[in-house]
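Here is one chain, start to finish.
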Amino acid sequence: MELNIDEALRYLGAGRQAPPELRREAEDTARRLTARLRPRYTYRVSSLERRDGVLCLPEADLILPGKDAETMLADCGRVALLGCTLGAEFESMLRAEQARDMAKAVLLDACGSAWVESGCDEAEREIAARFPGQYLTDRFSPGYGDLPLSIQPAICGALDLGRRLGVHVSERFLMNPTKSVTALIGISDRPQMARIRGCAYCTMRETCMLCKGGKHCGN
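Its structure:
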């Protein structure tokens, strides 16, 4: 598992066009981070049922509202629920860096975002290996399209994230520790097209500094 430096730089609004000095600083920050901690994840696979037009994951006791989940999972008979986090240790690491140097703290925060996504990638590879001959959809999270953030507590409950990973959800449906992700991945008998493209479908669309600056990350 590797931290994608270009991904971290995109969170900073730079990407592949980042100045060499910034890239070197990001690489140094990434080395420190990955040497100290690794993402932890857990997942659970459930069958997918359609009851009166509503998507249900019976084993997880979960209902998936909205049309976008229906579109993403149209060809799927199973769904993997995924949770991944850098845990409280990253929060402590970030607070210490903020007290010393805010510029380096911003770099660390971006690397943390890229590192937790690397953890999700690793989990996705493990899920794919469990189902040879099957095909996975893009992974998507609460906040994607019309899948509401309000489903976050139910996903965390189905995965028992509080006990397994120390992850909890606030009254505003935000996750704590902050570098935590939940996602759904459909599992199908047929090849799946890539559907997640563009800012409208991104869970960071409300806070993304690229969007605020009139740019995009290329996804």
